[in-house]
Amino acid sequence: LTRALEIFEQNRLLIQSLLNTDPTNVNFKVNLVVTLARMGDINWTQGNLPRALGIFEENLLVTQNLVDMDSTNVNFKFRHSESLSRVGSLSAIQGNFPRALEIFEKNILLTQSLVDIDPTNVNFGKQLGLAFGILGELYGEQGNFPRALELLEQYRLIIQSFMDLDPTDANNKLLLSEIYLHMGGIYAEQGNLTRALEMAEQSHFLSQSLVNLDSTNVEFQYTYALGFIRLGEIYKDRGNLPRALKLFEQNRLHMQSIVEINPNDAHYKFSLGTNYAQSGEVYYLQNDLDMAFEITMMGLNIYKDLISKDQSNFPWQKAFLEINTQLATVLRL
To answer: Of 42, 191, 219, 321, most Cβ neighbours within 10 A?
Structure first.
């Protein structure tokens, strides 16, 4: 990834020098958009969120300029929608929820206009669904669960319509599995554990079929692993601690394997830290304080390592605060 980033930076400098010579050249601007998007994605994967956001903000200006140059060009509008999605997602991760909400509300209007122009375009439909999905997650984070479920259901309906057209499409199955996972989390937050379990089981069924299809695909493995932790959370809330712990252990085995394959991916490391935090809480509830301390410390160390590389990441800070409190509770006893 580091070498790839160096190459894209060289490309960026070259394209910008060409634009200095010919500022209105559309092809140069499109190439710059592609380069900036890839640079931002790599920085995001590496956990350098401030740098990624800065690059995506720059990309947003370029795509907006393209739309201003030709407001009838649907390809320019689609690239602008992708830029909005990236900036909105990272704004949310860094805790700037008002900006993220504003961006995704705007993005829904933009992508809906694209779908209205070409209702059969799968890319437009998925982009609209993604905007619904992320906006739903944002409202869920703010505690507006009815609005969150409404938006996630709109996302589900869009992806389900694509699934109906091609039931074998693995990407649609993956998206649908992720949607059910998020909806299950919202129902759990509402205390509707029966509905939460239904959603989690549907998600797990889909992700299991994907892993069976291609056991080497990391995205399939990751969504499958997340299913274990969602199910574990539900069983923990229902008071079935042995079942919850078994599910968390299954999740941990998968996440450790994924992290070994992708040691530089901060997102996967964070998920492993979440597993340790959840497992530590179950051991605490079972009054196994030694294991609770050991497992919780493992999660704490992962969060500390992540925050040392990026102190602006809101979910990491929140998780670190929560696991610190959890550890203090264990030590108090």
So the answer is: 42
